[in-house]
TrEMBL record:
Protein name, UniProt field: Sarcosine oxidase subunit beta
GO terms of molecular function: oxidoreductase activity
Domain FAD dependent oxidoreductase: 3-354
Keyword Oxidoreductase: yes
SUPFAM superfamilies reported for this sequence: FAD/NAD(P)-binding domain
Length: 385
């Protein structure tokens, strides 16, 4: 019998690949083209500097795969380990940094707490006087999301996965009752019988769950990014730098250019994932550049915006994904809140374990079940940009 994965982004294709490697018959249904959701709009960041143990564990297991991706999948994904530099302006944030680094170190992550002047050793143009503490980890970095997606897509097809594009899932069938088991889906006019349906629909995950009469608190929220030619080139081996108290971040692109991003608005409305604007707002772009300039001297007044784009985060109330068998045969892998690219390798393996073994073991994901929202009992991720 078949496992149907809804969504041909990086999470759906990684899930399809690992399911097929476990011997499952898999169909991935993607309503557009592979990667046409959030994956091709990602900045590609990969890091272990999270504030909660479960997010660090998802990173550690995913980084094991990213580190071997070229060898195992035969694709150079442009993985550049330039490190991530987190910066604190407030003492309260610095206190949280101390706690987070101790927890990360306990889990084998080589992060360290730095003074602002030590941080400037990694980011020479840093306005160090603006900050009171920093953290840095040399194994963090970024890769090309499109190449990584293609790597998983090719490997999934080679492993026997039937990847169907332009194939929207329009109905999910279950036996009657709240605990009714999934029996199949309707996709682009076909009925596919299935033992399991995996909801890997990113910012559409709530809509897909609704097809199975399941309510998931996953909100589509718009995020923007710019490619900038800074007045002073950003060194290619410089870290992805996050000014956590303003929410601004930048990272080197090629030849001195930088990607600049962040969310600066107090409001964060839900978007229609089929109808939001994918181009940048000029006021946001001006603020993003100003905030980057407040952080580091690269972004003087002669900096030039080359282009930009907007995409969607799939956000949960505590900025952690939901990874669970939500109802018999209905597996959820969504709500990554801006971290779904980097956590896809671990997630794909966890989905395969949930389907094949009935339980996850690679990472302890007990805290990632959706019932945590009933009493706000889940961990809250603070290292979010
Ligand atoms: C500006 C920006 C920067 C980001 N930077 C980073 C970063 O640095 N690092 C990081 O880890 N993450 C980052 N992210 C987040 C990352 O892009 C996402 O978490 C990740 O791509 C989620 O992958 P996914 O496979 O879950 O979702 P998606 O890639 O959105 O895939 C879901 C797919 O489901 C399909 N679908 C929806 N409904 C249906 C249906 N009914 N039937 C069939 N198919 C359906 C959609 O068409 C879509 O292709 C960023 C996001 C944005 C917008």
């Amino acid at each position: 019998m078949t496992v149907v994965v809804v969504g041909g982004g990086i999470v759906g294709l990684a899930s399809g690949y690992y399911l097929a490697k476990r011997g499952e018959d898999v169909v991935v249904c993607e309503k557009g083209t592979v990667g046409s959701g959030s994956t091709e709009r990602s900045a590609g960041g990969i890091r272990a500097q999270f504030s909660t143990p479960v997010n660090v564990d998802l990173s550690v297991e995913s980084m094991n795969v990213w580190d071997r991706f070229e060898t195992d999948f035969g694709v150079d994904i442009g993985h550049r380990k330039v490190g991530y530099l987190f910066l604190a302006r407030e003492e309260a944030t610095a206190d949280e940094f101390r706690e987070a680094v101790a927890m990360q170190n306990d889990r084998g992550v080589p992060s360290e707490l730095l003074t602002p002047s030590e941080a400037a050793d990694h980011c020479p143009a840093l306005h160090a006087e603006e900050f009171c503490a920093a953290t840095y980890s040399p194994t963090d970095g970024f890769a090309d999301p499109y190449l990584a997606l293609q790597g998983y897509a090719t490997a999934a097809r080679e492993a026997g996965v039937d990847v169907r594009t332009k194939t929207p899932v329009t109905a999910i069938h279950r036996e009657s009752g709240a605990e009714g088991r999934v029996t199949g889906v309707d996709a682009d006019g076909d009925h596919i019988e299935a033992t399991h349906v995996v909801d890997a629909a990113g910012a559409w995950a709530r809509d897909v769950a609704e097809l199975a009469d399941i309510d998931l608190p996953i909100a589509p929220r718009r995020r923007q990014a710019l490619v900038v030619d800074p007045e002073t080139p950003v060194p290619e081996d410089g870290p992805l730098t996050i000014d956590l108290d303003t929410g601004s971040y930048f990272r080197p692109e090629r030849e001195g250019a930088a990607i600049v991003g962040g969310h600066f608005d107090d409001t964060d409305p839900d978007e229609d994932p089929d109808g939001y604007s994918t181009s940048i707002d000029l006021a946001w772009a001006a603020t993003a550049l100003e905030r980057a300039a407040d952080c580091a001297g690269y972004f003087g007044p002669d900096s030039r915006i080359r282009r930009g784009w907007a995409g969607l985060y799939a956000v949960t109330p505590d900025h952690h994904p939901i990874i669970e068998e939500t109802a018999p045969g209905f597996v959820t892998a969504a709500g990554f809140s801006g971290h779904g690219f980097q956590h896809a390798p671990a997630t794909g393996q966890l989905v395969a374990e949930l389907v094949c073994d009935g339980r996850a073991s690679l990472v302890d994901v007990d805290s990632l079940t959706s019932d945590r929202f009933a009493d706000d009992s889940g961990p809250v991720e603070r290292n979010v940009a």
